[in-house]
Amino acid sequence: MEFNRSPVVGNRLRLQGVYPETRIGFTRPRNWKVEEAKVLLRYQHSASLLSDKSRLLVRINDTSIGSIPLDQRNSQVGEALFAVPANLIQDYNEITMMAEQQSSETCSNPSDPTLWTEILPDSKLVLNYRPQPMELDFSGYPRPFLDVLSLDANRLSYLRPKTYSRDWLTAAARFQTAAGRQLEYRPLDTQLVKDTSEMQWNDRLIVMGTPSEQPILDSLPSLPFPVKNGQLLDGKGNPVPDEIGVLMMTVLPNKGTPVLVATGNTEGAVRQAVQFLVQTRDQQLSAGQALTVDQVSDVPSPESRNWSGYLPSKDQFQLQDLSLANRELFQDVTVRGSNAPAITIPFRSLPDDRFLRGSTMSLNYSYSPQVNPRTSAVEVKLDGVTIGSKRLDSNQGARQTFKLNLPENLIKPDSTLSVNFVMKPRDIGVCGLETDQQLWGTVYGDTSFKLARDMLVNLPDLKLLKTGFPLTAPQDLSAMAIAMPETPSDLEVETLLALGERLGRLSQADSVKYEVYVGEIPQDVRNAQHIVGIGTRSRFPVAEVFQNQGLSLAQSFTRFWGGSQVHALPDQEGVLKATLSPWNPDRSLLALTAQTETGLQEVQALLRQDSLFSQLRGDTVLVSRNQPDPSPYDASGYDLEFLQESAPQRIQRSSSFSQVILFLQDYWFFLLAGLLLLTLLLYSLSQVFLNRVADSGDVS
Question: Fewer CB within 10 Å: C terminus or N terminus of the chain?
């Protein structure tokens, strides 16, 4: 595993200062028994370092595995190999690299820019392992089909049924959404296969459908519920009741590939079996190699503004109410040293939040009494922009509070709040690790926030789709529906699975509730829900998306845009287009389409690759590749063109008073003009009145 696989590495890991350290995490797949491990470090360092006083120490899970002197001449690249005891490797691991860097015989300045060492990105961890047998038991689900500890991409292969029914499409899409949620940011490779000969190494086979839809059920070995004459039989040889779904685990003969079977004697039973797997609280009932699902409870939908990992919907809350990247709540955090790292907290607003003036933060903190009050400070940043700072000058060691304003225009759905302690020692003439580490700063979880905000959003806007909004409100996706052509092709189904995976990565809930429709969508669904259409232009199930403003695709490779018409031959671009629903102005209509199936592959790449999806903006995106086989990790292999034709419309859910306040904030210049006109009008009326009074006096 090369270090550059970690997103924190980039081009290098830099150690700056006198006693810096950096860390990289890695996992051990569950079926690996590690027999030997080594760490190969490639590094270079400043030529100013004193070789007899500068060293690099490497630890695995807080256990030292060796150290080396930093004695390379002229910043040449060095290599060092460290043996790792196999018993140190656990499920979750951390490599720590700590340096002591000195450029002076007496006392090195921690701020000296020449105190640096860089760990190069081609450094690597080498593991010699033996695969272990995997137990087929639903008590460990989603293992062995999904492994959050895997160092390689998880691979799911769906066995294609004879025909794509609405129930099969809904079940498969929901299963893919649940897989995206479980893996979070980890990669997932998905494919449709027609038979098991297309399976690759490390694939996991998913077989969904009735025995008539999936003839392979007749030949799979060791199934607890056998199939005979197209019927699933119970232990007594009787057909399984139509309302009962069946879940089973087995392996392919001669390959050892794990197989997950979700079946039943009716399509409704198959769908019920899959729904049991996507509801996280129901999985606690799982055990054994086979399950019969008699019924599945209906999990209530969460509130539309209850999003895990985002700011709470209430206006007053504390730091300990916020979730970190590992989905754990924030707790008191202490950092140490003159080069202490910043304390970062995800501070992501809900997509339909609009902040007003008056939002405040009361930071509760403390720091060590050894800091120099003249040169030490605490600094608060929002997305790298400093919004407040205060000198560490009094009551050293005691809790303090720093109240500051939160700029309303800086809080966004991807914002990060950071607190940085700039700490300098009181006695600068004393050097050593003990002196550096006695400097500490703590941020407390009872740090409080008071937000002034309203619910307002402008649609259509694909930039909001980066958070899943509005499809993911509520988070169980019950407010959306997906439309497919009457007879979907394999590429259209793969696009459906790519969308399901992306929505899973963008949402967190105990269930998945959206429906997939084939052909015509019922009118009540059109009126009440967000609609996502998938298909090539000639088979697109929601024609209304091309009747609004913006880019429109027509037959014979025709394009319309802003009154112009062209024929593009061949047209292999993928199109992602958002409009407001023609049936309900509070709902959205999203199209995933192209003139050809090649274009649908580009839409899939847009949905699956974070580097492309994170660029969304406007109301229409055209995506195409500029090289034959672009890397899935490099966005430069694709061209994205963003269009904005239709004017976004304001969707506001707030009180009348709040609407008036927002109107005055947005159009304050109209208020000034109105006051001026009113003043002139009153002045004119007063002059007329005074003139009449004067005229009446003359007559008398």
Answer: C
